[in-house]
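A reminder from the course coordinator: this example appears on the midterm review sheet, so study it carefully.

Given structure:
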């Protein structure tokens, strides 16, 4: 069953499976394909490995919770350049998943959950709460990648402290801190053609003065996104779209 635009649905399998002439979808992906989407023999589907490879397939057999797919052709997308990494201050509530979903759909390559000084939401390791929150971010990225037909699933890293972000910014090709009061608009910031561009998105209370000073010392510049102030959960996707356009990936 294709989407309204006539494009086949997308599922995920490991890289080794995509190398075979027949791909078997089982587990959650198989149940979704066979039970929810109700794909039947002869219908088209695409399967990705999340790291750039897509196998264009046709359904050979369907059983409850399982599909057998015949691979028609494969293609490998090269790693994108420059890479867009969004350091996302952890939003509260379900806005976190919204942020991850939107950034994935836009085309962000790396998402770093950041425990900023002014974050209201705190991921506590006790009782596994931190891991469950991270798992939700990663699951959201996987599903959003399928929905948006991306061959690459964004890398959602382990939670980062400010020191971790500073270390990453110091080695990046460019590092930008979103700041509503900055004198330079994001669209005017020169972007490199290769390497990693780090975009730092603060919490609802903004990046603290101490954090701003530390990022500047690490070589980051500040830029405003536009005349309005976006929520922390939407700013990353909007800013990434500007950068993707500026660097020619859009």
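Designed residues:
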């Amino acid at each position: 069953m294709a989407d309204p635009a006539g494009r086949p649905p997308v599922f995920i399998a490991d890289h080794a499976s995509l190398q075979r002439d027949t791909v078997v979808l089982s587990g959650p992906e198989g149940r979704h394909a066979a039970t929810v989407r109700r794909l039947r023999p002869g219908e088209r589907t695409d399967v990705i490995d999340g790291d750039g490879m897509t196998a264009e397939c046709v359904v050979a057999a369907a059983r409850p919770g399982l599909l057998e797919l015949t691979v028609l052709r494969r293609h490998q997308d090269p790693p994108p350049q420059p890479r867009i990494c969004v350091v996302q201050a952890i939003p509260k509530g379900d806005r976190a998943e919204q942020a991850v979903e939107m950034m994935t759909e836009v085309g962000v390559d790396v998402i770093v959950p950041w425990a900023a000084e002014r974050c209201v939401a705190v991921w506590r390791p006790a009782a596994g709460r931190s891991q469950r929150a991270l798992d939700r971010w990663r699951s959201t990225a996987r599903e959003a990648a399928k929905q948006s037909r991306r061959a690459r699933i964004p890398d959602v890293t382990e939670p980062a402290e400010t020191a971790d972000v500073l270390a990453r910014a110091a080695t990046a090709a460019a590092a930008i801190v979103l700041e509503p009061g900055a004198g330079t608009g994001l669209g005017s910031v020169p972007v490199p053609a290769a390497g990693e561009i780090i975009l730092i998105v603060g919490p609802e209370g903004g990046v603290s003065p101490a954090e701003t000073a530390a990022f500047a010392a690490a070589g980051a510049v500040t830029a405003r996104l536009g005349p309005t102030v976006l929520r922390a959960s939407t700013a990353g996707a909007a800013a990434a779209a500007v950068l993707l356009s500026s660097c020619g990936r859009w």
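DSSP finds seven helices and eleven strands in the chain. The domain at 83-246 is CATH 3.40.1280.10 (Alpha/beta knot).
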